[in-house]
Amino acid sequence: MEPTLNNSIPISTKEVEDDLRASSSAALLSATHHHSSSSHSPKKTAAATFVFISLVISTAVALSAAVAFAFLFFSASPPSSRVHLDATAELSRPLSKLKHPVVLIVSSDGFRFGYQYKTHLPNINRLINNGTEAQRGLIPVFPTLTFPNHYSIVTGLYPAYHGIINNYFTDPVTGEKFNMGSHEPEWWLGEPLWETVSNQGLKASTYFWPGSEVKKGSWDCPKHYCMPYNESVPFEERVDTVLNYFDLPSDDIPSFMTLYFEDPDHQGHKYGPDDVRITEAVVEIDTLMGRLIRGLEERGIFEDVNIIMLGDHGMVGTCDKKVIALDDLASWIEIPKEWVQSYTPLLSIRPPPGYSSSDVVAKMNEGLKSGRVDNGDYLRVYLKEDLPSRLHYSASYRIPPIIGLVGEGFMVEQTRSKGQECGGAHGYDNAFFSMRTIFIAHGPQFAKGRKVPSFENVQIYNLVTAILNIKGAANNGSLSFPESVLLPTY
Q1: Distance separating alpha carbons of residues 466 and 11, to the nearest angstrom
Q2: 65-81: pLDDT as tens digits
Q3: Which residue among 132, 144, 146, 155 is the active-site one?
Q4: Is 174 annotated in the active site?
Q5: What does the pLDDT look like over 241-260, one tens digit per residue?
Q6: pTM over 0.85
Q7: Neighbouring-strand partners of residue 406
Q8: Going by DSSP bridges, is the β-strand pair 177-178/169-170 parallel, antiparallel, or unpaired?
């Protein structure tokens, strides 16, 4: 597995530079004093020497006493009191009412980074201003689709390693088809956070999250703690159910919780990311976050709960005029629809036995680069092993051998249609800024008003296990990453 490495932060040399300046000043003063005293008489020189020696002896005695006092003070002080000597160090805040750490992840599907600036969102802004935010958004994994990303968030694995390589796909060995209602454990690899928490003897709850209904390992989707997906459940009811967990006896309050909203993804697909109805949906999400915050405040535990608000991907506008049609490649190669597992925004093709994938890729790219295919410049086709390594999208037999990267906002279809409807889509290269989503964290282990650089969502698994102080499973995140986001503990 390929770990994501963090850039190290250079230590400031300000103190060293200050010490050097002080040493230079002392040397200069010493040299000046020596020069001015050389013209004095021998008697004055002897007197000055006596005074100088007396000063040296008294200074040495004072320094010795100070060192002895410091030694006694520090050796007698417990470690906790020594931490507080650094008044500039911000530490995680102790729990005031809860008996153990709690992490609540709230996912707002399709909440593109930047939506938070569309209008006044008092509750989300409260979390941002008093918490920690990824300054330029959270980076989803490729493909930037709902199921691969939600499962990467809770496993710390890229899709090639956790097995959910698309929202829909076919297993080339068994011929079985995966869809968003598939709960058989053989599809879902890796160890999701609810299973990790359960392995440690703690409780977890999931209110709608891809993979949470899968009975796997120590996780059996416990009644009342694991909600079977039902899109029609009102968002307010979801919030209230999560709040009710905090009314349970202390030992029964889940250490890890998830909460999921389908919006603003629905509006994004239907109307595109710039429509007024996106703004309305975002305001509704903010209202729900306000309901959650008030409920926690009424219980006196808002400052005790580590809330992580995020999305799974962004959104970009699309129109039918921005289409690449596979039938337009017929002069170079025919791509029957039976070969295609997904069209857009991730084109994936599995030719039947007897066809060379390399030849198919070469002929498709020849046609796309010819200048005779409409929008051909906005599709490039690869053997999966030749994809950019930053996508981490080759190390699974489930990934079809041919993958097409589609230009931002463009779509691939079998046959060109005459419609001109516009909407929105996601699933594109995660290097596109439009695919970024939000990361906002508030709670005792997050600094107030802090901005951190963007990072991939595979880092969140280790972030949660660090907060809960539990041992996690192997994953693609960096074990040192939590140190760059969380406050140090007492």
Answers
A1: 24
A2: 443 433 333 333 333 33
A3: 146
A4: no
A5: 999 999 999 999 999 999 99
A6: no
A7: 379
A8: antiparallel
Rounded Cα distance between 353 and 362, Å, is 18
pLDDT at 115: 98
**In the block, residue with structure tokens 């694991």:** 226
- Please report, for residues 434, 443, 446, the alpha-carbon distance to residue 469 in angstroms, rounded to integers and kept in the order given: 34, 15, 15
Q: Tokens 């280790």 correspond to what residue?
A: 462
Instruction: Tell me the one-letter amino acid at 465.
Output: T
**11-23: per-residue pLDDT in tens?**
232 333 333 333 3
